[in-house]
């Protein structure tokens, strides 16, 4: 079917010329680079044979160090050694401050939109830190593949919002790289598995990393990967499992909650090791050196460990059920579950996930590398090395996108789990007579009230001709491209006045915020409805007041005698008195009462305007 | 170039009818996206990439509309010159509205049940059963397509929107219970 009369994909490439392309998994703890060589996708090691690059960057007066060497200095030179930059990317200073004491860095306390960490080499942003990691991986790839790269695919968590995606893309731009696509991590994993097994059907990708959890449900059919729904819990990961084990040890060993940092760090390390040992063994012996020099020894069985972590693992199942719902599927319809992320090595995770989806989880690819491998496969195709490939990835937007409307409410324009690319338009109108500008406030999140969602951007549509309230037709269009990036355009239809914005904010949602926003939106669905009803009623009351005030100014003198005028004004005052303090029902009643009390005036005005319209002359001409 | 003058059914090579073959719809969707999706034009010119984006957006929109029984009904009515303003219009079927109230009360009461999940699951089955019954009626109404039958389909669409909201609320309640765990 010739839909577009355009060159075929890859046609511009000379035959048999292999272009170099890589996939990069830019992780919180570790990053990887992979490429397709001789038809096989594999991760690329550094000179020392290491595949994983610790996502750590150290700034020194002599230069910038990335990876293992930087990580080794993290404890001794904490202020200049940036770890977990992924937690900061696409976020504002206020978001970062909420992470608080866990970050040892000094931030430049400027009004600048992009927060910068002060190092010996001057202030650096998380975007720049990420770009150093990308540069290191790209150099590794270029050395190992023997040439310059034509394009790269970078993976991001499916739950990354617009700001975080944009910031990640900026990091690549700063590193001088051509990004072919931002790819969602679970989708990348599906590609690695799907093409490997060649199995058509509906799959779930369960991705439990160090600090985040993603679930994606997708359908694979003849090379097309169609994401049906995605969900997650971005404040839950392997670190939390370590934490409950550490608490258990403290209880058993009689260590107080106010133990010092060194003790707590030791406990977390011991807990993490114990967790790893219990993957293979039935029980593990734990030794802790106590503050008084004594050594506490205990035994942790796998049964006990399972009891400790069960509540956390069960917490991941709620987003699984929700994603199934959004996809319109039941657990039985899922053919298999692909396990991604280091934390899925825990046997109990596999067991409970297997039970939930009623199938044995797939673990045949290294869960640390599967994302990079999927990204490499996608990069190879996008760069044009496989013009005959059938593979196509159809992804969704993870969070709803909307606009602020009257009264601090959000009008959803694109709901979550809509297939991208997508463009949706909605018409709005002016509220006041003679209005020539309109503010557009773009939001992301699931809640009904503006204040409960993440603000992505604001801009103004200015300079359209003045019209009576309600006559302007302002069409606002949201477009989300295949990378999941949003742009917004507003146009007044009758005059053609336009304004647009590439939504490129300097901050983003924290993972925790997204999660709690989603949770709150479910918890407060009822509350939101009430609040919304109240706001709508307030807006309605404001509209009535405004219209009546304008009318009085216009022809009150002419149409009303003194007594009538004071009746109208007292009705107006009654409504004004209650508008901000009244309940929905009270305001509604006040509006109704005002309408009744002013009915005679409204009728009189209508008659006058009808007469004017009929005559085209002055009213007196008919008398 | 994707023909934007075609309606969604024509775009997908499907007959303009309410009953849609889901398999065929999905297969045509994949074929269409394979030929226009931006990933196919990652190395193409700026103009080609723009066209590809436009085409992919159009196909996604059409797919979304055709696969959802409520959006599909609304779209078919529009093709027949019947528009609905959601803000203003609602069904006036008193019996139906009474049933809605009862269903809402039943849903609210599920919180107090010993096993609310089971109650909500049954509730969702019931709501889906009612939606499916309306879909069945609409299929016949669209088939005959007389003005009276189309008016009846329109009334059914208004009812389906009620049920859809009810389903959404039941799912939200379930999610709320999850979070309380």
UniProtKB/TrEMBL annotation, chain A:
<keyword id="KW-0547">Nucleotide-binding</keyword>
<dbReference type="InterPro" id="IPR013126">
    <property type="entry name" value="Hsp_70_fam"/>
</dbReference>
<dbReference type="GO" id="GO:0140662">
    <property type="term" value="F:ATP-dependent protein folding chaperone"/>
</dbReference>
<dbReference type="InterPro" id="IPR029047">
    <property type="entry name" value="HSP70_peptide-bd_sf"/>
</dbReference>
<dbReference type="InterPro" id="IPR018181">
    <property type="entry name" value="Heat_shock_70_CS"/>
</dbReference>
<dbReference type="GO" id="GO:0005524">
    <property type="term" value="F:ATP binding"/>
</dbReference>
<dbReference type="GO" id="GO:0016226">
    <property type="term" value="P:iron-sulfur cluster assembly"/>
</dbReference>
<keyword id="KW-0067">ATP-binding</keyword>
<comment type="similarity">
    <text>Belongs to the heat shock protein 70 family.</text>
</comment>
<dbReference type="InterPro" id="IPR029048">
    <property type="entry name" value="HSP70_C_sf"/>
</dbReference>
<dbReference type="GO" id="GO:0051082">
    <property type="term" value="F:unfolded protein binding"/>
</dbReference>
<protein>
    <recommendedName>
        <fullName>Chaperone protein HscA homolog</fullName>
    </recommendedName>
</protein>
<keyword id="KW-0143">Chaperone</keyword>
<dbReference type="Pfam" id="PF00012">
    <property type="entry name" value="HSP70"/>
</dbReference>
<dbReference type="InterPro" id="IPR042039">
    <property type="entry name" value="HscA_NBD"/>
</dbReference>
<comment type="function">
    <text>Chaperone involved in the maturation of iron-sulfur cluster-containing proteins. Has a low intrinsic ATPase activity which is markedly stimulated by HscB.</text>
</comment>
<dbReference type="InterPro" id="IPR010236">
    <property type="entry name" value="ISC_FeS_clus_asmbl_HscA"/>
</dbReference>
<dbReference type="GO" id="GO:0016887">
    <property type="term" value="F:ATP hydrolysis activity"/>
</dbReference>
<dbReference type="InterPro" id="IPR043129">
    <property type="entry name" value="ATPase_NBD"/>
</dbReference>
UniProtKB/TrEMBL annotation, chain B:
<comment type="function">
    <text>Co-chaperone involved in the maturation of iron-sulfur cluster-containing proteins. Seems to help targeting proteins to be folded toward HscA.</text>
</comment>
<feature type="domain" description="J">
    <location>
        <begin position="7"/>
        <end position="81"/>
    </location>
</feature>
<dbReference type="GO" id="GO:0044571">
    <property type="term" value="P:[2Fe-2S] cluster assembly"/>
</dbReference>
<dbReference type="GO" id="GO:1990230">
    <property type="term" value="C:iron-sulfur cluster transfer complex"/>
</dbReference>
<dbReference type="InterPro" id="IPR036869">
    <property type="entry name" value="J_dom_sf"/>
</dbReference>
<protein>
    <recommendedName>
        <fullName>Co-chaperone protein HscB homolog</fullName>
    </recommendedName>
</protein>
<dbReference type="InterPro" id="IPR009073">
    <property type="entry name" value="HscB_oligo_C"/>
</dbReference>
<dbReference type="GO" id="GO:0051087">
    <property type="term" value="F:protein-folding chaperone binding"/>
</dbReference>
<dbReference type="InterPro" id="IPR036386">
    <property type="entry name" value="HscB_C_sf"/>
</dbReference>
<dbReference type="GO" id="GO:0006457">
    <property type="term" value="P:protein folding"/>
</dbReference>
<dbReference type="InterPro" id="IPR004640">
    <property type="entry name" value="HscB"/>
</dbReference>
<dbReference type="InterPro" id="IPR001623">
    <property type="entry name" value="DnaJ_domain"/>
</dbReference>
<dbReference type="Pfam" id="PF00226">
    <property type="entry name" value="DnaJ"/>
</dbReference>
<keyword id="KW-0143">Chaperone</keyword>
<dbReference type="GO" id="GO:0001671">
    <property type="term" value="F:ATPase activator activity"/>
</dbReference>
<dbReference type="Pfam" id="PF07743">
    <property type="entry name" value="HSCB_C"/>
</dbReference>
<comment type="similarity">
    <text>Belongs to the HscB family.</text>
</comment>
<dbReference type="GO" id="GO:0051259">
    <property type="term" value="P:protein complex oligomerization"/>
</dbReference>
<comment type="subunit">
    <text>Interacts with HscA and stimulates its ATPase activity.</text>
</comment>
